[in-house]
Amino acid sequence: MSRIQSTFDKLAQQRRKALIPFFTAGDPSPAFTVPLMHTLVEAGADIIELGVPFSDPMADGPVIQRASERALKHLVTLHQVLDWVAEFRKRNVLTPIVLMGYGNPIEAMGWETFARRCAEVGVDGVLTVDFPPEESHEAFAHLAAHCIDPIFLLAPTSTDARIERVARQARGYVYYVSLKGVTGAGHLDLAAIAGKIPELRRHIKLPIGVGFGIRDGETARSVAGLCDGVVVGSRIVQLIEDSPEQEVLARVGELVKALRFAVDQA
Amino acid sequence: MYNYPDKLGHFGPYGGIYVAETLMGALEELNQAYEKYRHDPAFIAELNDDLKHYVGRPSPIYHARHLSGHLGGAQIYLKREDLNHTGAHKVNNTVGQALLAKRMGKKRVIAETGAGQHGVATATVAARYGMECVVYMGSADVQRQSPNVYRMKLLGATVVPVESGSKTLKDALNEAMRDWVTNIEHTFYIIGTVAGPHPYPMMVRDFNSVVSRECVVQMPEQTGQQPDVVIACVGGGSNAMGIFYHYIDMPGVRLIGVEAGGHGIASGQHAAPLTSNSPVGVLHGNKTYLMQDANGQIIETHSISAGLDYPGVGPEHSWLKDSGRAEYVAINDEEALAAFHELCHFEGIIPALESSHALAYAMKIAPTLSREKILLVNLSGRGDKDINTVAGLSGITL
Ligand SMILES: Cc1ncc(COP(=O)(O)O)c(C=O)c1O
User: Fold this and answer.
1) What are the tens digits of pLDDT across the range A192-218?
2) What pLDDT was estimated at residue A178?
């Protein structure tokens, strides 16, 4: 059983929802990545989405764009991100790690090499924002060969046919984008999410995580009540940007603890 | 019979639909609308009527006699896309996409622009069809193409300078995509070149193919034959696909795409992914040859010409390169600038710096060919927008 599946199974038994924080690897600088991952877990994260920086993050708002730029100033590479996961696994063998980013750095490495390295270092899932199911067959065959879960996005605009298609190809969980827009936008519509989730559930038997635009405990709690997991990205990345370096870990830890508390109220 | 792309927008291994799920719905809607209207007689009639009376088509083909005589070799003919309304081939595409947007009930159009020609062409049709228009433009390009920025504003468009990344065309495209995904219900994204996710590369090519549709009729009328060589500059590649398209199935006609060599291919500072044998990658919705580092990060390009300053190339060009049907070469900044001045001098035509790349290559090979050979160059735009850049390089402030 995959680490992602067993994590959701355990949460389901406890009637709890998953808290899935995101941050960009290498931000604010490379030395922070592994300590931040441990901080997230200690503060109550169930799964970590680790962003792989890319020069042209088309689906991201300004907050995550700037995080990518900061990481790339330090010349962070996909190889390094994989090494950091290996480093993290020396002290943590339970928390699932999902790499989230754009396809080109993986294309440059080669999917075969990438999938093998993911398995070696202990990556559990891969979400390639700009590879929809239509373009994913070859790439994800390599992931499947190494038992890495392909995580797919669904959106408010996804038709029934597309939901069905994602249901067939997805493993681990499905990531529902809660608004029309880029990451970090601020116009999340709870009623619309509540309306869409049952539509998704008709086809999708995997857990459903919801993200994009969740910025506070109150929203996290409400969203958690509607699905199986809550993804919080831009809010954390914004805090990393706003904090003096010596306070990054403590502040992120506090924020995630508060989010954990909120999600557990759902 | 050349028959690309396939249903999902693939030109061999290139092209496709590499976008986030959040855009898939809009692309499906666009695909269906385009499939519905592309063969619809009423749509075609309206398009042709606007191309004739608004754009001023057909554009003439002009024999550059003095320039050819001076070079002493092959005859250079210019397809005068610079004479179109708004001064470039870009309007062929924006008229088409705006008419489609109108039929889809979209009241707001957005565009990215490099040189500003596509932005102007979009602002123009938005005014013509009564649509709101927002144009994204890298802040570096806002600087070097300021006359076009003002033109867009005169036409009622909002120009948004983009400060992220390299502050050029690719970043403008990123930002336009972000706008589109946010305002997807009422916004139509008019992409300005044969890049982006399917159906854009095909659709933009189709709308620009009016150029070669005219050439295959005009050339025999004027010269008694089809050209020996067709030459066009390649940024994203829309003017090149436009003038190549109806020649693809005529194997006797050589097709040459001219990329921006910048400071020279060896310098690394250029915008020539095909000529420099860049690796294949994925950007802006399609798979294509792409300038990137060993880690798959897109690298900054350089060209004197804002319209060619793009790290990728339309996927159909990648396919035409691999299949051997077209050849790709590069012309550097200096050569393009020299050609710019030569055309002013010999023919009284001020060409766009983009088009000057195609012209420079024609001028390079003309002396090596006999006087009976015919080179057809796509003079994709006029150079008024570039006078500040050219003056600056000559140490003159206007
Ligand atoms: C006059 C002119 N020619 C060529 C180009 C390059 O675009 P494409 O390669 O799509 O024709 C531009 C782009 O702005 C342009 O303005």
Assistant:
1) 999 999 999 999 999 999 998 899 999
2) 87
CA nearest to A54, candidates A118, A111, A109, A124? A109
Which residue of the set A27, A49, A124, A149 is catalytic?
A49
* Structure ipTM: 0.96
Place of tokens 């709890």: A16
Q: Which residues pair with B43 in a beta bridge?
A: none
Q: Compare CB distances from A56 to B16, B25, B283 and report the shortest one's residue.
A: B283
The count of residues in chain A is 266
Residues of chain A found within 8 Å of residue B177, distances taken between Cβ atoms = 58-59
Task: State whether A79 and B295 contact (CB < 8 Å).
Answer: yes
C-alpha B111, offset from chain centre: 14
Spatial contact of B317 and B237, defined as CB atoms under 8 Å apart: yes
Catalytic residues of B: 90, 112, 380
Read off the amino acid at residue B230.
V
Q: Could you give the angle at which helices A190-203 and A160-169 cross, rounded to 10 degrees?
A: 60
Q: Chain A closest CA to B281's CA: distance in Å?
A: 6
B41-50 vs B90-103: helix axis angle to the nearest 10?
A: 140
- Written as one string, the DSSP assignment of B378-392 is EE-BBSGGGHHHHHH
Tokens 């004739």 label which residue?
A: B52
What are the DSSP calls for A173-197, one per residue?
-EEEE-SSSSBT-S---HHHHHHHH
* 3-class state of residue B189 by DSSP: strand
Pick from A154, A192, A177: nearest CA to A233: A177
A136 at B interface, C-beta within 8 A: no
Place B143 in a pLDDT band, splitting at 50, 70 and 90: confident
Residue identifier of the C-alpha nearest atom 5 of ligand 1: B307
Q: How far, in Å, CA of A55 to CA of B301, rounded?
A: 13
Mutate to test the pocket of ligand 1, among B59, B79, B233 (most ligand atoms within 8 A of CB): B233
Closest CA to B180 of B102, B106, B98, B115: B106
pLDDT in tens, A164-174: 999 999 999 99
- The architecture of the domain spanning A17-259 is Alpha-Beta Barrel (3.20)
How many whole angstroms separate alpha carbon B230 and alpha carbon B375? 6
Domain boundaries, chain A: 17-259
Nearest alpha carbon to residue A137 among A111, A155, A173, A118:
A111
Please give the number of the atom of ligand 1 that sits closest to the Cα of B381.
1
Amino acid letter, A239: L
pLDDT of residue B145: 86
pLDDT at B166: 86
